[in-house]
Amino acid sequence: MRIDRRGLIAGSLAAGLTARASAAAADDWPALAAQVRADMAWAWDHYRARAWGKDEIKPVSGGASSFPLKDGRHLGLTLIEALDTLWVMGLDDRFQAGVDWVKTRFDADVDGEVSVFETSIRLVGGLLSAHHACGDPALLARARDLADRLLPAFDTPTGFPYRFVNLRTKAVRDPATNPAEIGTFLPEWGTLSLLTGDQRYRDVARRAAVELYRRRSPLDLLAVKIDARTGEWLDRRATVGSYADSYYEYLWDGWQLFGDAELRNMYRVLTAAILRHQRVRSGADLWIADVDFRTGAVISAEQDELASFYGGLLAQGGDEGVGAAVTETWARLQDRFGVLPEGYDYATGLPTAKGNALRPELADAAFNHWLLDRAPRWRRIVRDHYLAMRRWNRAAYGFTDLADVVTRRQADHCPGYWWSEQMKYYYLIFADTPRFDYARNYLTTEGNVLRGFRPPAGNTRAGSGA
Ligand code: DMJ
Question: How close is the Cα of 361 to the center of ligand 1, in Å?
Fold first, then answer.
């Protein structure tokens, strides 16, 4: 089922790609950037008309779904996730309307339970990146208030946060946690500490990351489930996919953003072990397999789509060759399916989970490679990611998940990260915008820019971040 590029481009034309952008065949990057910006404005206007202030629009039916409260109440997730993407695209009126909504309507004082991890990467991070864009102190105040409501979750013997907390009562739940939900805090919370002078945010985030590292196996591997009360492992599977992915990312990022050499060393020790024990060649492909964290034995050939970010991280950490091989492996899978399946078994060559939740990871990886070496192949991977999305995920009121990447059957859901991640990666890699410092920047795991925004000409406000 290999995707041929002429078909992709023709399909994108049919889906409304402008004649100029159809020159994508000729790698017309400015035209693609203009098309991404137009798509963002179009999707935002539908969100504003049909789901303003709701968490997520349903792009097929025009309804809305709630997340992270997940009980029908909303926190404006999409609106907050979209803000810095709107800003970097120069969609200033829309950005300002979103900021005004946050200042007048956003209220985290809700008697309801949220995921500590999701609320931090999406909402705290979204508010901080919007603050970085415009410098409005009200955005920082909202981010701090939200972090204060998440803080009680970290009050455990290990320093690992409980997975859930009630935003008003501070009641916590579920200590059976994982590396991603333990160690994906420091860039946002360290930035909060820098901006507020209150060290508690940085300290809890850093302690959790370090304490997890201390519990690595004799092979220097981490498993995917651990008890926050006792520090006992509850599983033996080591993976770079879901529930672990961004832990590794944030060790490297702690070094990149704050110059924290201990975190860099932790990243290096764990990465060396991953490359030693989890690397599997299969023909031309290079996969990072799931293994037993005590023996190193490969557990399965199943790959999780979220792991496709990992080649970009390897390259950022200095392993450019292996990282490129991993990303190109995933890009070949993209060539085959058009849109990556959520799960794939490299031994059988079959998808194990046929949906795709409008995922950004491969575009994220290619963008990170491109920031390092500017090789055109990375832009082409991102272009194909974008064009496939335009062809198969576009619906009446925005872009939607696919229920099945083989039949292309659409679901009816647009996740918040779509607004913060791939739309930003597409735009930044195709455009050459003066609003972004391509040489010195920092994007969180959710694509939130905490460093690297530049004020538009004649305006000195942006650039107040870390
Ligand atoms: C995003 O919320 C973040 O990138 C997170 O780290 C894991 N992946 C999702 C999107 O797939």
Answer: 8
